[in-house]
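Exercise 7 asks you to align residues with tokens for two separate proteins.
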Amino acid sequence: MNNELLELWSIWETSLHNEEEQIKRQKSATSSKCTPKKLDDNVGVFKGSSKDYITTLTDCQCRDYALRRFPCKHMYRLAHELGVFVLNSTVSSNENISSELRMDDILPTLESLDKETLLFFAYQCYHLGNDNKNGPLTIKIDDWDLFQKLLDNKLLVGGKDYKASLSHLKVAELKELCKASPTKDIPKKKPDLVEYVLNNYDVTDVNFSKIYATFELSPEIKHMAFSLHKRIHSMYPNCEANSYFL
């Protein structure tokens, strides 16, 4: 254990860590949301709601530390990562947190897109849910250029659970995907059709049919699907009530 780090952390009395308010922050520190984005030279960078926080064993840029001047959850998590304090609860980590974007990061992209593309995107955010809970989706694409904009801007990516996605389609829709195959070779039952498509077509290519697409939200924004839906809705407050804003 690094004695220099222990000395820095020792400015906080041991009894302080047993106080109720501090125990609450220790529990918060174990969350995957409190995974440091970066650790460098005993300094941690943590993701905040509107900006990143630079954290050391003696201070932090977050509001909680600014108001209380006692260790916040970021400081406890840093101390744990550096081995100078042991968090009693199981500590969860999020390996993707360093790549996750905030709303402010994605706003310029949203503002560069036309209304119809944004409304379509909002609808997909609503149905996919946070962290792609309901995804991936497979739907019929009426305007491929519009869909391609979302792919090009890395808002949507090809989904990976192809079997589950294809299972959402109707038999007629599955047969439409097989139109390049001889009619006599195309199965009639839905489970067999799904397997036939998987075995005979490159469904890993989101553009494989130019009719139906399997997709989900990109990893960088999947955590804020409902927030994106709400934000786009706020951009068009006078939009007629329609299926985009359910």
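Second protein for Exercise 7:
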Amino acid sequence: MFWDEARHTDAVSESELDQSPSEHNETDTAADLEVSNEAAAAEDDAEAPSRESPFKRLDKGLLTAYFVIACGLFAIIWAVTSAITGTDGIDRPDAIERLSPVENAQQVVQQEQVVVDLQFGYEAALVIDGIELPTARIGEFVGDLDPENAGVQVEAPPTAVFDPGNARIEFRPGRDALIESFSEGRHEVQVIYWKVEEGRANALSYRWSFDVV
């Protein structure tokens, strides 16, 4: 019996010996593959930041550029919509059809003519920088009706001049006028206007300013 156990032990040992080389090879191969896979994964993890970093930096740069462009476009749109050009944004009375210089005009010359065109049926007077100018009506100038002046242009007096046929009042600074020239800076004009049939007692007024260079 002892001999049988010994033979059995030897058989097992020989079987184990016969199987061990292939098993060891398979084990070693699996271990090598596992180590290789772990090493590859580690390399990928190490390289991942460097591969992703340029894209991340590029995205941040693009976002910054888009933000700057958006801010610029917003500023341009705001400036355009807020700017006042000509009579835009001006609450001018309906009775006033046109005036010159326009509200908030820039670069006005010192001898600039002030003109207000009204709707037909109105009369007016001008006040500039707090000075109400005398008004002469066309057809009432001295010498207008003198036969000797027929066909001759009569010089307008140094006052505001009102043309009843066109409902127009105007004034040009000049010699002997209350305002000989506009000084540099801002000037304020007030036009006082009223319907002919109602008289000046029911007059309205409108003010605006311009800048002289």
